[in-house]
Design brief:
2 copies of one chain form a homodimer.
Chain A lengths: L8 H18 L13 H9 L4 H38 L4 E2 L9 H6 L6 E3 L20 H14 L8 E5 L1 H13 L8 E5 L6 H7 L6 E6 L9 E6 L18 E6 L18 E5 H4 L8 E5 L2 H15 L4 H18 L11 H23 L2 E2 L6 E3 L4 E3 L5 E6 L6 H6 L3 E2 L1 E2 L9 E5 L4 H13 L4
Parallel strand pairs in A: 1-14, 4-5, 4-6, 6-7, 7-8
Antiparallel strand pairs in A: 3-9, 8-9, 10-13, 11-12, 13-16, 15-16
Helix pairs in contact in A: 1-3, 2-3, 3-13, 5-10, 6-9, 11-13
GO molecular function (chains A, B): carbon-sulfur lyase activity; transaminase activity
Pfam family, one (chains A, B): Alliinase_C
Cofactor (chains A, B): pyridoxal 5'-phosphate
């Protein structure tokens, strides 16, 4: 082992302390001192006493070193943007946190330079077909390999015994799954349910074409029909970040697991998921929403075949350009966290994203505490097999509740020029809103700053 | 004007003659002499007597010179592939011409080298959004500009007064149009019709989700309901290449014009189309089927808005990577045929593709004549405003009829290991099949060679 990379426990703790001090100074404008919280690195070290302490030191050292570097960049940016922000915020600029547009990862990919640049010649990938011998004939082998490798490295899903179906985002795969799981010419459409609060697009995507195959049937907790149904299990859940399991648990139930957020920057990876039908997407794992690529892991061959048929009829396959780009991105993420032969100059993607999410959650909780008008859910700490650390989930969305007399939280925040998505879209009361945690740094800072100053309704 | 590029009429006619002789020699293996046909260049010269003769000489000279160069490449390839072919054909290799996979353009794009190479960094185009101020918020401005410019140069569609909606191929836009044009919660689904023979995917795309909004109602010629309907007008038509107009022409009719093949390599551009809703796609215009990009030109703002909504619900927008690639390709096609500032080293794309289609149609007609078991439709010659030439349509698909006692042409050809798509898929009798004219050179040669030798049933 390279001795230069092995720091003593004392060094790590000093750096960790420096980081926490940096965070306190950095977030000083919120107007409240941070409660002394043990950083993930501290926890990580505790957990890693059960592991090879020397190896874990390298990991934690690297994390801290990278964070220090990131902090430097951010502080510079922040200095500039603070001045800019003060002017802008004086004018009451609208902050849009309605959508989950994952632009916060942009700066990581900028740091990666040419490593993830995709180059495609005009004559390449012209055909509709990727591999006609395969069930999913439009799936690029390179993309499939990158998916399998990354799941293995992260340990969040079992790919063995599953067919991979690529889709134009997991949105298309969701619809493909409904098509595949519902028999044609049934006497009535199949009921589709999910426990409230559920992803606001589920009812819209299910019902917009008034399909005879399936129909949205609302909150899974209230489902009482004694007929076949599909239950959508989103874990971690969008919008509230909770870890979920099926709630109906009746005969004739078919489960679709939406695991868009089951990645180690958002939640501890407790086990490799091995469900019948699992959905993933690059938009939330790596932040490439504009690329429109998702994938399904499907046990049943006939279901995978029908999902492929849906995509054939809906869009005649999936863009090769995007699959190649997604493959390159997933390979880079894999390389950055692969202990075998990883590029030492590259910061592990999940370290970067984990630390940024952790920082943002701290920042938001401080703002909420300062304001006293809102509350946020608490999450239990759990051990993450991927990072070897215990931590609380730090979801991609914050599920904010307006306390006291504020009944319509979305309208209330809109009055403060903060756009969010209200509870009624998610099947619950309007005291809740969903807030994207994935915005660009400047907007997120502006948001927490403004939120912390809202003192009365 | 560069004098080196101006050849006399005598030179052009000599080259044209040489080309025709070349074609006869090239297609000698078909076993039949070609009937003496006036080449497009001859016709072109006649037409251009009404134009600036000197300028037209440059065009025609360039075409011939390029064809000569192309011929050289093809002859070399052909020599190699003939030997290969004889072995392969001896073994009775299956030739799949069922799909319209436009791989024939691959060699053109290879010749273009780096001019159409797209390079995208990992941090670019991460967001879902392209321009939130625009009706179609996921439309890349660069792609929109390329579309407008190319339509202007080719003169095949009016873009002024139309909104551009980008889609994951025109297949998705077709479904978006149905969604946009059918009122929700109607007492019964809207009828969707098209004159037979119609594109085989229309019924499937319309009915696969058993939508309550719309329903396939078959051949437009047989439509008799006195209720609102949507008529799909495909011109040039897939599968038979005919030029089309609406046939129902009743009140309460809404037209969708599928103009995927209204490009000058397939048909004379007689006028710039100016319909309410027109669909186009890169897969058939430039051959980039794997990129999955199409566009709609839509007059009515509300229809454009609802189409955008469909794409939002179906796939949350359209891949940015593919839009950028498509923009680059369309720009290159535009550059290659833009009289202002075009790159002299670049062969105009529509010259290349026109000449290749012309050659293939001659080759196919010779094979059909040799066999005597089949027939092909004839097309009237028309003047093309784009090329300044008169020519017969040379469609992307051949609509082949089995003559005599052969009732099921698809099965008959399958017996000869030629896969095609039978008439019943297009709403007509099985004596017809659709054959892709867009295959790679080797497969197309193998096909015409084999077809010409089929002498009896």
């Amino acid at each position: 082992m390279d001795k230069r990379r092995v720091l003593s426990l004392r060094h790590v703790l000093m750096l960790s302390l420096a980081l926490n001090v940096g965070l306190i100074l950095r977030l000083g404008y919120v107007g409240e001192n941070w409660r002394a919280e043990q950083s993930v690195h501290g926890l990580c070290l505790e957990e890693k006493q059960y592991r090879n302490i020397e190896a874990s030191m390298v990991d934690c050292d690297q994390k801290v070193a990278h964070v220090s570097k990131t902090k430097l960049v951010e502080t510079t940016t922040w200095s500039t943007s603070t001045a800019h922000k003060e002017v802008e915020d004086g004018g009451g600029r609208v902050i849009n946190l309605d959508h989950g547009d994952p632009t916060m990862y942009e700066s990581f990919w900028q740091q990666m330079g040419d490593r993830t640049t995709v180059v495609i010649s005009g004559w390449q990938y012209i055909s509709y077909f990727s591999d006609v011998t395969k069930l999913c004939w439009f799936l690029e082998p390179e993309f499939a390999r990158a998916v399998i490798r990354l799941h293995k490295l992260v340990g969040n899903a079992i790919t063995e015994g599953h067919h991979i179906v690529v889709g134009t985002g997991s949105t298309q795969l969701f619809q493909a799954a409904l098509y595949a799981l519902c028999p044609p010419n049934a006497s009535e459409p199949m009921s589709v349910v999910s426990a409230a609060p559920f992803y606001s697009s589920y009812p819209l995507m299910t019902d917009f074409l008034e399909s005879g195959l399936y129909k949205w049937a609302g909150d899974a907790h209230k489902f009482s029909k004694n007929r076949p149904y599909i239950e959508l299990v989103t874990s971690p859940n969008n919008p509230d970040g909770s870890t979920r399991q099926a709630v109906v648990n009746r005969n004739q139930g078919i489960l679709v697991h939406d695991l868009a957020y089951y990645w180690p920057q958002y939640t501890p990876i407790s086990f490799p998921a091995d469900h019948d039908l699992m959905l993933f997407t690059v938009s939330k794992s790596t932040g490439h929403a504009g690329t429109r690529i998702g994938w399904a892991l499907v046990k049943d061959q006939e279901v995978a075949r029908k999902m492929t048929k849906f995509i054939e009829l809906n869009t005649i396959g999936v863009s090769k350009d995007s699959q190649l780009r997604a493959a390159k991105i997933l390979q880079a993420v894999g390389d950055s966290c692969d202990p075998v032969g990883s590029d030492e100059e590259v910061q592990p993607f999940f370290d970067y994203s984990y630390i940024l999410m952790e920082k943002r959650w701290k920042q938001l909780r401080a703002a909420v505490k300062n304001s006293r008008l809102f509350s946020l859910p608490d999450f239990p700490t759990a051990f993450c097999n991927f990072s070897g650390c215990s931590f609380e989930p730090q979801p991609a969305f914050a599920w904010l509740k307006c306390e006291g007399e504020i009944e319509d939280c979305e309208s209330f925040l809109r009055g403060h020029k903060i756009l969010t998505r209200g509870g009624k879209h998610f099947g619950v009361c309007p005291k809740y809103v969903r807030i994207s945690m994935l915005e660009r740094e400047k907007n997120f800072d502006l948001f927490t700053q403004r939120l912390s100053t809202i003192q009365s309704w």
